[in-house]
From TrEMBL:
SUPFAM superfamilies: S-adenosyl-L-methionine-dependent methyltransferases. The keyword Nucleotidyltransferase does not apply. GO terms for molecular function: DNA binding; N-methyltransferase activity; site-specific DNA-methyltransferase (adenine-specific) activity. One of its GO terms (biological process) is methylation. It comes from marine sediment metagenome. Coiled coil: none annotated. InterPro entries: DNA_methylase_A-5, N4_N6_ade-DNA_methylase, SAM-dependent_MTases_sf. Gene3D superfamilies: Vaccinia Virus protein VP39. Its EC number is 2.1.1.72. It catalyses: a 2'-deoxyadenosine in DNA + S-adenosyl-L-methionine = an N(6)-methyl-2'-deoxyadenosine in DNA + S-adenosyl-L-homocysteine + H(+). It holds the Pfam family N6_Mtase. The keyword Transferase applies. Residues 64-182 form the DNA methylase adenine-specific domain. This is site-specific DNA-methyltransferase (adenine-specific).
Length: 199
């Protein structure tokens, strides 16, 4: 987690996202919520996280829970209810993705998936993880660290082209984007070792 937080700071990702999602309707209250959210995110810096590839891996669930719970705990119940925002348990996320056939044993590498109310990214992140697992299987690799630079870049392209999230809440969008960066962070690190200019 420490490497990830350093990456966010070094690349000024949070500042870029904040600027991207800022508009005339951004209220001071929204900005305060975002600031608290980001403070809480930075406090996670010392949590140890290992590379994982399996969907049902407990550590994978822990990573998912960290970010979704972070958002969930930043807003009070009244605010969430007013906006219709509630945490989707991972079991429900996995069930829905399974029902639509979005799993690593199917040919999902070119399947487009959109979450039109993505919140902090429950469905998006799990879809990315499943897509990564599928791509690892296609490339005959067991771990992200075994990918070639071109294979890693191809996975990032697949994520960019095929997985989409939308939300009316800018803070949810920002956290979802951070969550996406975290989901692909090991792949980005691998690419950056070979190509420091990769964006």
């Amino acid at each position: 987690m420490q490497d990830f937080i350093k990456y966010l700071k070094k690349e000024k990702i949070i500042d870029s996202l904040n600027f991207f999602y800022k508009d005339s309707s951004t209220t001071q209250a929204n900005q305060l919520i975002l600031n608290k959210l980001l403070e809480n995110l930075i406090s996670l810096e010392n949590i140890k996280v290992k590379e994982t590839t399996r969907v049902n891996d407990n550590l994978n669930r822990l990573e998912y829970d960290i970010f979704s719970k972070l958002y969930e705990n930043t807003l009070n119940h009244k605010e969430k209810k007013k906006m219709g925002e509630f945490y989707t348990p991972i079991s429900i996320v996995n069930y829905i993705l399974s029902v639509i056939g979005y799993n690593s044993s199917n040919n999902i590498e070119d399947k487009t998936i959109i979450d039109i109310s993505c919140g902090s990214g429950s469905f998006i992140i799990q879809a990315i993880r499943i897509l990564i697992i599928r791509c690892l299987e296609i490339y005959g690799k067991k771990k992200i660290s075994q990918l070639t630079t071109n294979e890693a870049k191809a996975i990032i392209s697949k994520v960019n082209e095929n997985i989409v999230g939308v939300d009316v809440n800018r803070n949810a969008c920002i956290l979802c984007q951070i969550n996406i960066y975290f989901a692909i962070f090991e792949i980005l690190k691998l690419i950056r070792k070979a190509d420091s200019n990769y964006q």
